[in-house]
Amino acid sequence: MAIPAETQNNLRHWQTAVSNDRLAHIVKDTTRAFVRALQSRLTDHAIPFGQWAFLRVLWEKDGLTQRQLSEEAGVMEPTTFAAVRAMEAQGFVERRRMPGNNKNNYVYLTERGAELRVALIPLAQEVNKIGVRGVSAADLATTKRVLLCIIANLAEDEIAQQRSTRNG
């Protein structure tokens, strides 16, 4: 199977990249590589990549409102609405209203949606295993620790920016 042109370009770039390339670019391209690897595996099961985040959330916390599902998956509500509608049409989820609360739709996995976990989680584990092949346990632990620190720093900055915008 031929390597897609975009992947070849990324490989060429990072093989010749200067050592001071911005971390954000490296993280973006790493994310893209992980996404493409998982996406190709999900396609074999007729699951669009866009549904992956929602399924992962629902496997852990079934019966969320669409708003809660959006927040947990980290996407906008219109995106969630479209994905839930598609997953409902595929028979993976169903929307229900709770007695006495006609305002909110709650999203529940169907048996078919719950069963996908057995087939799909190993695919993600495989991609992660491939991604860290040749990386020592110590380097991997350091990478995780550093990335979590970066996430925390940027979250603090986002909060500070929001405060200064409101107060400014």
Could you describe the 3D structure shown?
The radius of gyration is 19 Å and the shape is globular. α3 crosses α4 and α4 (66-73) crosses α5 (77-89). It is mainly α and 168 residues long. 15% of the residues are buried. The chain has seven helices and three strands; from the N terminus they run αααβααββαα. The chain is 70% helix and 10% strand. The longest helix is centred in the C-terminal third of the chain and has 31 residues, at 137-167.
Question: Which features characterize this protein?
Answer:
70% helix; 7 helices; globular; 2 domains; mainly alpha; Arc Repressor Mutant, subunit A
Secondary-structure blueprint of this entry?
Blueprint: H1 5-16, H2 23-43, H3 49-60, E1 64-65, H4 66-73, H5 77-89, E2 93-98, E3 101-109, H6 111-131, H7 137-167
Antiparallel strand pairs: 1-3, 2-3
Would you kindly provide a brief summary of this structure?
By secondary structure, the chain is mainly alpha-helical. It has 2 domains: 24-132, Winged helix-like DNA-binding domain superfamily/Winged helix DNA-binding domain (Arc Repressor Mutant, subunit A, Orthogonal Bundle), CATH 1.10.10; 134-168.
